[in-house]
Specification:
The protein has 390 residues and is an alpha/beta fold. The chain is 43% helix and 23% strand. Strand 7, helix 8 and strand 8 form a beta-alpha-beta unit.
């Protein structure tokens, strides 16, 4: 009985992702949908457009109870608290909102933005995620960040005083970074993090300034062996200090996982609001993959003309849905229930492939049948997923 109750709770999750697309500057490693504008942003006009798209989306996906809201970007902490309040009010107007809803706002750890934290708390935000990225000034400068390490730690302290829940991000596998340097930085980070850290390996994405520098030999990142050592250090240090990985890049104390991100990884429904936002909605018995116009001003005009900025709305077939479930679910330490994969795809996972991956030490199958990727399997997760999905 207990397991069925837990299963129902997971399936009932519904998230709303709101994308604020503006930044003060574009980081050289970033390939997210973020834009720099030198003229002031018309926040009132954008707030009206967010409200309109929320209304239209709720009409397509009514009778949901929102369990998590995530204000991402871009840099949402460039918004005035009043704008955040208007967006949250719109969500509450068109959907039911759970009493224990998690409301996360991404923020840059600059002193200017940190002064708004109490305003965000008053607007309804109850969790903040800080883009710290590094805890030494030379690395921050190399990453194109506008804050210092001291400013970042001061912002973390302000977040601690304003919110019961907070998290911050760090990037590792940076140029010239050694495992010992990373271990020391990680221990400092853990001493400042109450419950949650997001730790990402630096990846060189096509179309970014880092891509050009890397191709020209002007940016050297750790080789494969060092990158693997840095990953292993991440797992060991975090686990030793009580923040084991619950997802390949996310670490938390027991019960402190980001509920909104679990919506994505567990294959639940979420609405995507704002420029370049993606959604997964169940409409008339089909799972729809939605995406909105990326360019902020073009999105704004679409919403004002049509009530929404959606440019992609595809009904996923059973194979696409099952593959997505596998790809996302195996990122989690809790793994997946193969029966759910079979229900989505119409076919079971190949027992012989499972047997080979178990023999190689890449996956394990629990007593209750759940399939999980091992610590050794996570660094080659893409290959594991491809093998199972074939």
């Amino acid at each position: 009985m207990a397991s069925s109750v837990r299963h129902y709770a997971k399936r009932a999750a519904f998230g709303v992702y709101v994308h604020w697309p503006f930044c003060l500057s574009k980081c050289p490693y970033c390939d997210f949908n973020s834009h720099v504008r030198h003229a002031p942003i018309d926040e009132e006009r954008f707030a009206r457009a967010f409200a309109r798209e929320i209304e239209t989306t709720a009409a397509r996906a009514p009778d949901r109870t929102v369990t998590s809201i995530f204000l991402g970007g871009g840099t949402p902490s460039l918004m005035q608290p009043r704008t955040v309040g208007l967006i949250l009010d719109s969500i509450g107007k068109h959907w039911r909102v759970a009493d224990n809803v998690e409301v996360t706002l991404e923020a840059n750890p600059t002193s200017v933005e940190a002064t708004r934290f109490r305003g965000y708390r008053a607007a309804g935000v109850n969790r903040v995620s800080l883009g710290v990225q590094a805890l030494d000034d030379a690395s921050l400068k190399g990453l194109g960040r506008l804050h210092s390490a001291r400013e970042a730690l001061d912002a973390v302290a302000i977040a601690r005083s304003a919110f019961d829940r907070y998290s911050f991000d760090l990037i590792y596998a940076r140029p010239d970074q050694t495992p010992q340097m990373w271990a020391d930085e990680l221990k400092l980070a853990i001493s400042e993090a109450a419950e949650h850290l997001s730790l990402y390996q630096l990846t060189i994405e096509e179309g970014t300034p880092f891509f050009g520098l890397h191709a020209a030999g002007k940016l050297k990142t750790p080789d494969e062996a060092v990158a693997r050592a840095l990953y292993d250090v991440t797992q060991e240090v975090c686990a030793h200090h009580g923040l084991p990985a619950y997802e390949i890049s996310n670490h938390a104390r027991a019960g402190a996982a980001c509920q909104h991100n679990l919506v994505y990884w567990r294959g639940d429904e979420y609405a995507g609001i704002g420029p370049g936002a993606h959604g997964r909605l169940d409409i008339d018995g089909a799972r729809h993959a939605t995406a909105t116009e990326k360019r902020p001003e073009a999105w704004l005009m679409r919403v004002e003309a049509n009530g929404h900025g959606v440019v992609t709305d595809d009904a996923l077939n059973s194979e696409e849905r099952a593959d997505e479930f596998l790809l996302m679910g195996l990122r989690l330490a809790e793994g997946i229930d193969p029966k759910r994969y079979a229900a989505l795809s119409g076919r079971a996972l190949d027992p012989s492939r499972i047997a080979v991956l178990r023999e190689e030490g890449a996956i394990i199958v629990d007593a209750d049948g759940r399939l999980r990727v091992t610590q050794a399997g996570f660094p080659v997760l893409d290959a594991v997923v491809a093998d199972l999905a074939a």
